[in-house]
């Protein structure tokens, strides 16, 4: 059973369609990045899944139940973009409150505070916390009770680089334990190697939905090869490869995905005068710009 099954869902405000015939499935243990410009429909779609916003057409099954149903609510974890907690409570008191609501042991709540890096600040008032620390409390409450589906809206906002790395380690642990994870974020570089599939919304429509390797093939965007050679051979290498000189030892050329092996064979065929080759495929930022600027629709 899919953790989340969105089928041909449309949401309208008056005559304005903010979500247009979107279909998206997430399996247990899968990590999906949901991307899109501000106003693309990401937050609206998340609210629909949570049962906070009704939709006009289509069907949604959340862990086999309806959005907002008792079953769905009991098995979902959610981290909103802007977290707000009672400042007069300590981090430990706040998370223990959520633990009681979820019938989770207080010991597990304390363990989660340590897991998200708040052990030393657990008994300090939340009012004294930085934005990143409040975000960690939010993450802890979202994964409290081992939810089967976790929705994370801009989860790394306010986190420093080390905390971001630790956050994605936690996401990996969740996925390995079978939890389905949907992340909505503008931090594209960190998502590139930390998710299993990329879904892109443009003006309410799903315009991309696949693994990044497949999206690269669909976009037919060029791969960049930077070839380092001997200084006295740089002109020869540039001519033979049809490349442009970058500096006194490096030339650069491009090819399509289906030409990569042939091009690499051509480069290595030049022998010992080749010292290094860097191969750079289209990044997630490149793909995001490509799919966000087209009218392509993928279901």
From TrEMBL:
<dbReference type="GO" id="GO:0005524">
    <property type="term" value="F:ATP binding"/>
</dbReference>
<keyword id="KW-0813">Transport</keyword>
<feature type="domain" description="ABC transporter">
    <location>
        <begin position="4"/>
        <end position="228"/>
    </location>
</feature>
<dbReference type="InterPro" id="IPR027417">
    <property type="entry name" value="P-loop_NTPase"/>
</dbReference>
<keyword id="KW-0067">ATP-binding</keyword>
<keyword id="KW-0547">Nucleotide-binding</keyword>
<dbReference type="InterPro" id="IPR017871">
    <property type="entry name" value="ABC_transporter-like_CS"/>
</dbReference>
<protein>
    <submittedName>
        <fullName>Gliding motility-associated ABC transporter ATP-binding protein GldA</fullName>
    </submittedName>
</protein>
<dbReference type="GO" id="GO:0016887">
    <property type="term" value="F:ATP hydrolysis activity"/>
</dbReference>
<dbReference type="Pfam" id="PF00005">
    <property type="entry name" value="ABC_tran"/>
</dbReference>
<dbReference type="InterPro" id="IPR003439">
    <property type="entry name" value="ABC_transporter-like_ATP-bd"/>
</dbReference>
<dbReference type="InterPro" id="IPR003593">
    <property type="entry name" value="AAA+_ATPase"/>
</dbReference>
<dbReference type="InterPro" id="IPR051782">
    <property type="entry name" value="ABC_Transporter_VariousFunc"/>
</dbReference>
